Amino acid sequence: MSRSFIIDGSIIYTNYSQIIGQSKFEELLREFVDILKEKQSPLLNALNAFKVNSDYDVHRFTEYLHLLTMRNIKEIGNIIYYVNPKDLERFIEAFYTFWRSKHRFMVRNEKYAEDYNRRASIEYTVTMIGDQFKATIKNLYRELMMNVSNTFPTVMRQLPSGAQVMFLIQEPNGEKYRKNEWVTKIPTVWGAIFDPPAIFYTKSNKRRGILPVVEKDILSEITLDPNEWYRFAIYVGDLLMYNFVHVEYLAHGAGLANLFELATPKDLESREPDGILIFGLPADKIPGYNEKWRNGVIFKEEDGYTGVIPAFDENDYFGYMKKTTLTIHNLIKIDRGKLPIHGSMARITLKSGKSVVAMFVGDSGAGKSETLDALNRLEEVAQIDTIIDDMGSLDIIDGHVVAFGTETGAFVRLDDLPPGFAYSTMDRSIFMNPDQINARVIVPFNNYNEVITPTHIDFFLYANNYTEVHNDEERIVFFKNPNEALKVFSEGKRMSKGTTSETGLTNSYFANPFGAIQRKEEHHRIAEHFIKKMFETGVKIGEIRTMLGVQGYEKEGTMLAARALLKVIEQI
């Protein structure tokens, strides 16, 4: 059975029969029993009365549980079967835990409403249904435990047990895109409601390699089943992307909703996608599959780019979803003569009234987001407005270099953030593998209009996490000419922090393995033009030493770098 459990959002759950009477309940119970059989678990002692040869009659046991919602176990035992109460209590507790380990999504088919009052009403209704389902599940568990144990706890814990995310979907209708018929048959997610804390455990927690780009038309050779796939139409900066997600990987679809701006069905009536991504397609369904595509591939088709992430356990990581999406964005930007940037950018406002915009360039683990967080904790800083968290692009408007963002949220590595950060964002975040190395949180931080508004840059800094320095003068250095700057940015050095499969000091062209390396010649020509333009217009281009990869400075290094940058800003 799938790791993802889909709950019907069209039902208002008010009684236990609506839960136990569903075929999905029996299927879930069957799956749990099969797992226990494989482990030869003593928990199966609770089902001895329902044993038939070497198996168990799960249907009869389901009916027994249904009776237990209405009668005490002693009363039932006198009528039908004798089941050891202690064994059954342990079984129910384990089954409840098994249910809670699932990725739980409620899906409601509802036509998108342009009127915001009508949309608010729809979302309120879905929230109410979700809350009612959650309450029914909790009460079902408690009723069973009470009727088995003949006691009721003096301390109750409201464990998360309902839908973690509720999706509003609509069947495609009247869209501008018509080239491949199957694309217009996949249900479109146009709204999402989170019930925090949303915590998902996936089978992988790091990404590998660089996505190859292959010139090949594949969309016409692929067909997706509308019963197994969902489409997330998202804005990546000013580009429209169609991300198709298999139900097994729906946790990553939830991540998209917390990281990017969702497009509406109305938007799709007047615009075709700039790029497409298919996440979770079995390798044997990928036309002409090559083992080099194991961790993902991007196809350059006649009229755009299509990314595919194969359905392997090692790819079950949101980093693949995000980075493939952003790689397609970057390839399109390069084709259009823009400069994609792997970095973060924020408007830094001091209490003195001074305000600057600083962009930090660097690969994963370089200390970009961490330095901004350190700045935000300085007493002299009034406010940090994050505009770009991980990826953006540069353009030249009216003779000046301006930046645009891509995401409305951040996919943040918890290990490098200050204590307490995870708890302060728990009410609006998605946590991925919080107990593992490279644990991540997806947290929204900005609105879409600000992300796509052109922003002038004052500082353009390479985030160096590997050089150990001991005085403030060395923490930030400015380049004397474009060639010196281009050399450092092009080398893309960083000390690996465990966010990828790389180790030690590594090089990544322009700190951007997401499109820049695949189109290196074109990118280098564009980068040279933009850096020269920044020098001409007075943008301060340099290097900031975060020391995030230097042993012993993982926490202190970014704070020292932040203080050094503060001094530079104050001297302007």
Strand content: 25-35%
Name the overall outline: globular
- Overall structural class, as computed from helix and strand content, comes to alpha/beta
Give a quick account of the main beta sheet: strands, pairing sense, barrel closure. 11 strands, mixed
Query: How much helicity do the residues have?
Result: 25-40%
Total helical elements:
15
The number of distinct β-strands equals: 28
Low-confidence stretches: none
Radius of gyration: 27 Å
Q: Averaging pLDDT over every residue, what do you get?
A: 93
N-to-C CA distance: 61 Å
Supply database-style keywords.
single chain, 572 residues, alpha/beta, eleven-stranded mixed β-sheet, nine-stranded mixed β-sheet, 15 helices, globular
Provide an overview of this structure:
It is a single chain. This protein is of the alpha/beta class and 572 residues long. Helix content is 32%, strand content 26%. The protein has 15 helices and 28 strands. The strands form five sheets. Strands 1, 4, 5, 6, 8, 9, 10, 11, 12, 13 and 14 form an eleven-stranded mixed β-sheet that branches. Helix 10 packs across helix 15. The chain is globular, with a radius of gyration of 27 Å. The termini are far apart. The mean pLDDT is 93.
